[in-house]
Design a protein that fits this description.
There is one protein chain. By secondary structure, the chain is of the alpha+beta class. It has five helices and five strands, in the order αββααβββαα. The strands form two sheets. Strands 3-4-5 form a three-stranded antiparallel sheet. A two-stranded antiparallel ribbon has the order 1-2. Helix 1 packs across helix 2. It is flat, with a radius of gyration of 21 Å. The termini are far apart.
Length: about 190
């Protein structure tokens, strides 16, 4: 539906539909995963990894030129299957064990961060001073959930206090079960 009008579409599935993640997993397994494993990794000079959940993915490369070659080839590969990269969500950034050193060479202050699956991933240090991948709840997701909670509270003021507490506890439990590892990860 667009602006209250039903629009028939001959291609794809509705955004946010329950079928979307399932079909993305099947389609991208052949379009992206196997291609990455069989073709991309063979042409890389360093290590290369991909992490994918439904239609979201992060590709990691040891060397910047491998990442740039992948990004170029990715557009061509996806076009063959009538797909395209979301430009606003796509970037090449320096990240990982040597990111701090490399960013300082380029007159930067600190390594960039990226959001993936509701978490902001960033470079940090362990208590012993070693590199550690850290993550926290994405600021955008956090503020969205706070706003939704505020609206829910305003709409449900008429409920008894015990009903409100039950619902609040369920909402908080859901948040902690998904984002709880971020709390653990940032305190290590």
């Amino acid at each position: 539906m667009e602006n209250g009008t039903v629009v028939k579409n001959e291609e794809g599935v509705p955004q946010g539909g329950s079928l979307s993640p399932l079909l993305a997993n099947i389609y991208l397994h052949y379009t992206l995963d196997l291609w990455f494993t069989k073709a991309v990794k063979k042409h890389c000079q360093g290590e290369a990894y991909i992490v994918r959940y439904a239609d979201d993915f992060v590709a990691c490369f040891q060397y910047k030129h491998d990442a740039e070659m992948f990004y170029e080839a990715l557009g061509i590969r996806l076009a063959k299957f009538s797909l395209q990269v979301a430009e606003e969500k796509t970037k090449i950034l320096t990240f990982g064990r040597y990111a701090e050193r490399d960013v300082k060479k380029e007159a930067g202050r600190k390594p960039q961060t990226f959001d993936f699956l509701g978490f902001t991933h960033y470079c940090g240090r362990s208590r012993k001073g070693r590199f550690k991948l850290k993550w926290k709840t994405s600021r955008k997701k956090y503020h969205t959930r706070i706003q939704e909670f505020k609206e829910w509270i305003q709409e449900n003021r008429k409920l008894s206090l015990s009903e409100i507490w039950k619902a609040v506890n369920l909402k908080l439990r859901g948040h902690y079960q998904y984002y709880g590892s971020a709390i653990i990860g940032t305190n290590c």
